Amino acid sequence: MKCPHCQVEINPDFKEYYIGGYENEMFYSVFYMRCQNPKCKSPIITLGKSKQADRGTGMLYGSSITYQQIYPIGSNRAPAPVEVESKFAEDYNEACFVLPFSPKASAALSRRCLQNIIRLKEGIRERNLKTEIDKLIATNKLPSYISDNLEIIRGFGNIAAHGMEDQVSGEILDVEPNEAEFLLDVLELLFDLYFVQAAKAAKMKAALNQKLTSAGQKPIP
Ligand SMILES: [Zn+2]
Predict the structure, then answer these.
(1) Ligand 1 centroid from CA 81, angstroms
(2) pLDDT tens digit string along 126-185?
(3) Residue 95, burial from CB neighbour count under 10 angstroms (0-12, 13-18, 19+)
């Protein structure tokens, strides 16, 4: 598993603390560990519940067992890369944060973030998000692994039906199962393309131009 604090790969080494059974006929345990990364060492706390528990050993078992991370709060996704401008990064980070509590709120933030990328980075501004995605795909500028995924997003029921029209901005659309998470995955790809790779390319060009200039040659425009 990845540590939700530092995103480094760690061994899930949880200790179980049995709390007991409650009125809803579920049994509860708290699971606790510290990240093994010496630079992090942060605590990770999960609440487990199950219909079955062994009171002798104080352990949950059974197929009904579920876990919910209670510390740190939020999803396990890494924040937006530092290269991403704050007006995009803020919506994305907040969409990650609220994901476990409200996929609908998360998807609303992600859709707005996606729309802002299309409008501000590509200058495509249409009546609704669906048409904007269509136009972006039609530019043929995107690698296929991104345009294929954008086609999936465009096909999600509520974007296809209502499309986030400007006239009803602020409307919270329903969300399909996995849609909220998938939107975040695609935003991650777009961040990489529009910000991380772009910054890398600009850095390479600057280094080359410095070499050219110091050799008395004309820099690349
Ligand atoms: Zn860590």
Answers:
(1) 17
(2) 988 889 999 999 999 999 999 999 999 988 866 666 655 655 555 667 787 788 999 999
(3) buried
In terms of Cβ atoms closer than 10 Å to its own Cβ (0-12, 13-18, 19+), residue 140 is: exposed
The whole-angstrom separation of Cα 34 and Cα 115 is 39
| Residues 84-103: tens digit of each pLDDT | 999 999 999 999 999 888 88
Separation of alpha carbons 3 and 11, rounded Å:
9
Q: Is the peptide bond before 72 cis (omega within 30 degrees of 0)?
A: yes
pLDDT, tens digit (0-9, with 9 covering 90-100), for 23-52:
778 999 999 999 999 999 999 999 999 999
This prediction has a pTM of 0.72
The DSSP symbol for 2 reads B
Which two tokens mark 65?
Answer: 């067992």
CA of 1 to the centre of ligand 1 (A): 10
Centre of ligand 1 from the C-alpha of residue 94, in Å? 20
Entry field: residues in the chain: 221
CA of 9 to the centre of ligand 1 (A): 8
